[in-house]
Amino acid sequence: MTTELTAERQLTEQERQHLHTLYKEFHQNPELSMQEHRTAERIERELTALGISSFRCGGTGVVGIVENGDGPVVAFRADTDALPIEEATGLEYSSEATGTLPDGTDVPVMHGCGHDSHITGLLGAAQVLLRNRETWSGTLVLIFQPGEETAAGAAAMIEDGIWDKAPRPEVVLGQHVSPGKAGTVDISAGPAMAMADSFRVTVTGRQTHGSQPQNGKDPIVAAAAMVTRLQSVVSRELSPLDSAVVTVGTFHAGLKENIIPETAEFSLNIRSLDEDVRSTVLNAVERIINAEAAAAGLEQPQMERLYHFPLNYNDETAVDRVLPALQKAVGAQNVAESKPRMGSEDFGLLGSAIGVPSVFWFFGGTPDGDPEGPVNHSPYFAPVIEPTLTAATDAAVSTLLAWLGRS
Amino acid sequence: MTTELTAERQLTEQERQHLHTLYKEFHQNPELSMQEHRTAERIERELTALGISSFRCGGTGVVGIVENGDGPVVAFRADTDALPIEEATGLEYSSEATGTLPDGTDVPVMHGCGHDSHITGLLGAAQVLLRNRETWSGTLVLIFQPGEETAAGAAAMIEDGIWDKAPRPEVVLGQHVSPGKAGTVDISAGPAMAMADSFRVTVTGRQTHGSQPQNGKDPIVAAAAMVTRLQSVVSRELSPLDSAVVTVGTFHAGLKENIIPETAEFSLNIRSLDEDVRSTVLNAVERIINAEAAAAGLEQPQMERLYHFPLNYNDETAVDRVLPALQKAVGAQNVAESKPRMGSEDFGLLGSAIGVPSVFWFFGGTPDGDPEGPVNHSPYFAPVIEPTLTAATDAAVSTLLAWLGRS
Amino acid sequence: MTTELTAERQLTEQERQHLHTLYKEFHQNPELSMQEHRTAERIERELTALGISSFRCGGTGVVGIVENGDGPVVAFRADTDALPIEEATGLEYSSEATGTLPDGTDVPVMHGCGHDSHITGLLGAAQVLLRNRETWSGTLVLIFQPGEETAAGAAAMIEDGIWDKAPRPEVVLGQHVSPGKAGTVDISAGPAMAMADSFRVTVTGRQTHGSQPQNGKDPIVAAAAMVTRLQSVVSRELSPLDSAVVTVGTFHAGLKENIIPETAEFSLNIRSLDEDVRSTVLNAVERIINAEAAAAGLEQPQMERLYHFPLNYNDETAVDRVLPALQKAVGAQNVAESKPRMGSEDFGLLGSAIGVPSVFWFFGGTPDGDPEGPVNHSPYFAPVIEPTLTAATDAAVSTLLAWLGRS
Amino acid sequence: MTTELTAERQLTEQERQHLHTLYKEFHQNPELSMQEHRTAERIERELTALGISSFRCGGTGVVGIVENGDGPVVAFRADTDALPIEEATGLEYSSEATGTLPDGTDVPVMHGCGHDSHITGLLGAAQVLLRNRETWSGTLVLIFQPGEETAAGAAAMIEDGIWDKAPRPEVVLGQHVSPGKAGTVDISAGPAMAMADSFRVTVTGRQTHGSQPQNGKDPIVAAAAMVTRLQSVVSRELSPLDSAVVTVGTFHAGLKENIIPETAEFSLNIRSLDEDVRSTVLNAVERIINAEAAAAGLEQPQMERLYHFPLNYNDETAVDRVLPALQKAVGAQNVAESKPRMGSEDFGLLGSAIGVPSVFWFFGGTPDGDPEGPVNHSPYFAPVIEPTLTAATDAAVSTLLAWLGRS
Questions:
Q1: Which residue in A164, B242, D8, D375 is deepest, having the highest Cβ count within 10 Å?
Q2: Cis peptide, bond prior to residue D108, ω within 30 of zero
């Protein structure tokens, strides 16, 4: 990785070592969405050490504000939550943490989406910019957002009045680690990340003895038929030139093999890049679930909406300013313009809630960008520490300076 | 219900009230298979109060022995365990108990199979017979067996040497509550209850982000295909004149809707009345599971045997003695000869382990024998206390006397 | 095979050779249901040669009447139609015949159900009985019924007034070749053969280019889902102790691989032994077909009833007379009492239409009764000529004499 | 539609009427692929009338050559075959034609893909250019290609030496009618139409009586499972940002509802825009078909390749010349640059076989371009005669002149 940032705008070796320590600490102490209590406290301690004042927002969210004279207000967001995954990376600093899901289930927890690198990269950028106060002016808003994985965190911060408590920015920036090669960055103008809709479906049958199917109604066979039939939404109801995903991510039914249970419950995650496609998919999914229940002689299942992620849209004008800054940060040959991603983010809400443009990009985390390697949400997802963290820091510094830098 | 038992061989009103209290106590304190610690202690207290010596066998099993002069040895077995079901009967004495499955899951527990009535009926019969010692001679072996639902209990008692510690009987008797009309009994000569085979199947895919199916292998879609395809075993591979059941009683996969999980796990319960049919079904089930994994590009799933229940066979000669005794107990018009049942029991092992015949019958538990009503293993299964318990007691007294009665 | 029929009541060697020739001639000239024109003519020629008067009834049906003094009237029925199967037996006298289905499709034709042996056996019995006129008295009605495979023939003969034109019998007898061992017979009292219901289902989608599924509605995917889901009727909605079959015997859709067609058509054949089971199955089948169409966003498919076969019920009193006659014909050790068969017959209609009892049995056709060997409707089904035809003749002679024989 | 072609380069009213007559004649006389005998004769008569010499090539292919002095050689291709579809447009000039598929099935035939408009448009362009000989110079090669729908025709013409018999062109042009608005044209540079792969799959079970599934192996249930499971290829194994189609266009099994047939046969049509995606899909399809056969206990089905269509690639440099010519022909506002189409063409082979670039575009055929209306291969697909045919003619004239026109 070759940065064109001036020497003083790069991490010192001591700062870098500190970031590594911080990263491992976050990695070993992951917390589930909206339960990021220790994570928030650790961030607060770090901000305090840097002399940055902060306030809590949206429960476990933290907002730090650095006022540095006249000039634009720019916000940069890092998300802080982790996932119910049992880490299998074999890393020395692997997580052994556990947590409790809202339904009471105890689960292992892992930073399987790499948000620990987001926190660390933003703290690194804050440190560099504070050390170089004379080279920029304006106001920097550091947003450490909880609950991204459940689409709850950005909404909670807005609900809690983040834009009443912090100055309104003219742009909101954010970044995410990916399985790309460490030291590279990719970005797309326009649609950047998919809409997501998530539902919990409860199929109610009639419980009976496992040896007497005729006396009950089997919700597992019905729900399995739904899962099978849902495959035809993408394969038959959409143009092959359109993009959508229908994933059944959980399926839970029954406590004992010799009882046909009363209910089966599964959850759905649906992605789309376009409102028409989204509407076609949502209608088809609901139609199939209801019809398969009817095929099994069951009542209409209960479909409970879990959340909706909006389209994450990268403002084209703002991208025109971000792109050269990224090229400066990691070298022009290391910045790619890419297709939209089917992943989703609630990042966009932070800007759209107040009509402000936002830009979001991805930085690589693997030594060689192996396309067959583990991806986000895999129990094996293990970004290398360097050059990942330095690139994340440099990218944040450089893009913030694109608005805040003195000439 | 009209019994032809003499007055002294019937429950006194005071005994009946005591049995009702006992029954409710067992019903409110159900325990999972092989964890029947308090149940065993309660049975022991009751035997002690009756002056019957007992010993523990197979962990939570209890064996009481009543020696009453020369004569045959006869064993009568009641099973004692309950199920992971959340009771929904609305009964005043409903269970609110919980328990922990072997895998660590906390679950509600209910006597959803009615074993509480088995315990109570056998204790009632013991009391009546002790009060009428002069009218019979021989040895009565009272077996309170744990872990019937998991096919573990009879095997555990045999393993623990029940037939070394207790005298060997010439017949083993047993009974089970059913959704039939309270006060009636039904029995079949020859094959009485099905063989059962149970397996846990673990389908291993490759975990990935829910928006990137192409980067993983979806074990939920694969396992759903297995559930769907398994329906064709009974529908296409067996003669319609043969009998078998293939039930998938549990299906568990995934912790979060936006992660395609690494594994899906389901459990199977298979019933058959005939070794050829059993073999056809087991082969077909394994073939389908392996082939559906191959269809999904997955490795062969792990199939772990949970248990095997043998065929529960009613010795025809012994039935010839039991049948008139049952008719005497509840009235000839209330005794039916029935087809075999697809339910399974480890009861038969207690006799077959030592080459001794056994007989097993069903007594009704509902006011009107409504064929549409809740059945065993339903959260609504709620036998009426009377005449259910009196009939169970009378049936046990009368059949025991068929071997032990003087003249 | 050991018969106890007197020598004169057995086939002479010359008669037997003639039957063999006749059998091969029928086998090589099979005709589809209700198109048995040449078959009817050949039967008529044979009856004429025997001096038996006959009349046409129900189109291609033939009825021969032999009046032989006072006494009971007894009818014996042989069915005459063949199937759209391409013979693969490799027999020297294999069929190379073709025919045209009602929908215009040209198909190969084979006596794959063995009706050729039914015709021959009944002609053989007529010959023997005519040669022994002095040993019996009464009236013999020989029914050569067309269209059994489509349930059309018995109804057509009744509709055409068979029982106005022929004297009313006191019993109707009939027999069918099976894969059992040649020279043996089996019979069941009470329910003998299943009810059958057959439907043609037309699933209407919306035709489109094969590369544009989003512009049409795929009826093949919908109909495949129906076939798959129908497997759960037998596996989940019936007691394993009940008997039913749901077979999809045909599935036709599309003319070109790059067009998603407008419609898919399949046909269903449903068997049951009991009205309750039948009703459960028919309701479930219709429910599933309609719901799967809804899942695919299609209109309710058209379900056209093709036919209904009634339960073929063997009158118990008449069986008491048939059974010893069969034992006399083929030896007591060669007669078995069997379970009902899931096959269906319109035979029962001939008696039930006028309230007359009927009895139907099976005679084996294979050298060793190999249970793995080809069965009726297989392209490999190839009864051996002897002792099959002699047994069929003897069984018909002996059972007819059970009513008609002098002392 | 507004053309900028000079008056003399437009159709005269008389010419237009003649084209209409020709179009209806072709529409009413459609012929199946590689059987376009009368169509070829009719084209030849028309070329002769125009004074154009022609030769047969590839059986029913016709090549006309117009030499007009020095200059480039340019080829223009129209395809001539029709489809096995029963026309349902209700048009006065509807087809009532029938044809015979290679397997002997008699089928209705329709110009359901609109190739009749291709023939007519090219004949119209030839007429206009012959009338304006003085305004251009070079050689025009008119290719009337048979068998496009089966990917057989272009290959047959190349095999038959078209480029030995006709002068080698520097570009090959072609066009296709679409459901777009009549008078408009759309084109994409680079990948223009998908690769297609087509297979016939024969699933072999074991035939038996419909009431005895246990004695056979049901190929219909197995093939239905394949169709169902194939839906997961697109839904689970591809990136949602990639494009592919897996269509089962035909499914044929069984002749009688009460026979489980020996075999089921279906055909597959697979589209892709990229070799990697194609390879993933082909592997997955084969894997699923083999595994589902194994699930049913069947041998590996026979998969017979029917054809492969290559990617239809529009040479970017040639598009740069075609695009303004199309804008001139129908007005700039009526020309759109579009995404690739999932449809396939063997058009590209005519150029790629000799390393010559080619360009292919679409002209609309419906009054209003209704996106919900019938598409190619629908029995309701009914392009309006005008302005469809005039636009097709103008587009051909204008693009040919882009190479051949005198300044």
A1: D375
A2: no
- The pairing of beta strand D73-79 with beta strand D171-181: parallel
Structure tokens at B92: 């005043």
Q: A263 pairs with which residues across the strands?
A: A204
CB D186 within 8 A of CB B213: no
Q: C215 to chain D: which residues are within 8 Å by CB?
A: 375
Between CA D338 and CA D348, with CA D343 as vertex, the angle to 5 degrees is 85
CA–CA distance from D107 to each of B32, B305, D44 (Å)?
Answer: 66, 55, 27
Q: What tokens were used for C58?
A: 């129900």
Q: How far apart are CA A333 and CA A184, in angstroms?
A: 8
CATH topology of domain A7-193+311-404: Aminopeptidase (3.40.630)
The CA distance from A325 to B364, in Å, is: 81
Q: In this predicted model, what pLDDT tens digit does every residue of C81-121 receive, in sequence order?
A: 999 999 999 999 999 999 999 988 899 999 999 999 999 99
> Strands B61-68, B138-145: parallel, antiparallel or unpaired by DSSP?
antiparallel
Confidence of residue C11 (pLDDT cuts 50, 70, 90): very high
- Close Cβ partners of A245 (under 8 Å, ≥ 6 residues apart): A194, A234, A269, A270, A271, A272, A342, B210, B211, B212, B213, D240
Q: Which residues contact B14 (CB under 8 A, 6 or more apart)?
A: none
CB < 8 Å to B257, chain A: 198-200, 247, 249-250, 267-269, 306
Give the bridge partners for C337, in sequence order.
C187
Q: Are strands D335-337 and D244-253 parallel, antiparallel or unpaired?
A: unpaired
What stretches of B29-150 show up as alpha helix (H) in DSSP? 37-50, 115-131
- Is C377 flagged in the annotation as binding? yes
CA distances to B145, B401, D58 from B170, rounded to whole Å, are 19, 13, 91
Token pair 């592919």 in the structure block, residue: D244
Decide: C403 and C72 in contact? Cβ < 8 Å.
Answer: yes
Find the DSSP H helices in B94-218. 115-131, 153-159, 162-165
Residues of A in contact with B176 (CB under 8 A): none
Cα–Cα dist A182/A192, whole Å: 20
Do residues B177 and B112 make contact, with C-beta atoms less than 8 angstroms apart?
A: no
Give the Cα separation of A152 and A142 in Å (integer). 19
**CATH of A195-309 given 3.30.70.270, 3.40.50.150, 3.30.70.20, 3.30.70.360:** 3.30.70.360
A134 contacts A127 by C-beta, under 8 angstroms: no
Q: How is chain B split into domains, by residue range? A: 7-193+311-404, 195-309
Residues in Cβ contact with C184 at an 8 Å cutoff, skipping those fewer than 6 apart: C330, C334, C335, C336, C363, C364, C369, C391
Q: Do domains C7-193+311-404 and C195-309 have the same CATH topology?
A: no
Tokens of B144: 């309170």
Dihedral sign from CA coordinates of A149, A151, A152, A155: positive
Q: Omega of the bond prior to D146 within 30 degrees of 0, cis?
A: no
Which of B229, B287, B294 is the closest to D225 by Cβ? Answer: B229
Q: Any idea how long chain D is?
A: 407
Q: Rounded to whole angstroms, what are the CA distances from C18 to A41, B218, C25, C395?
A: 104, 67, 11, 18
Please tell me whether residue B42 adopts helix, strand or coil conformation.
helix
First to last CA, chain C: 25
Nearest CA in chain C to B241: C243
Residue C115 annotated as lining a ligand binding site: yes
| Range 360-379 of D in CB contact (< 8 A) with C | 375-379
Q: Rounded distance, CA D43 to CA A400, Å?
A: 69
CA distance A330 to A360: 16
On whether the pTM is more than 0.90, the answer is no
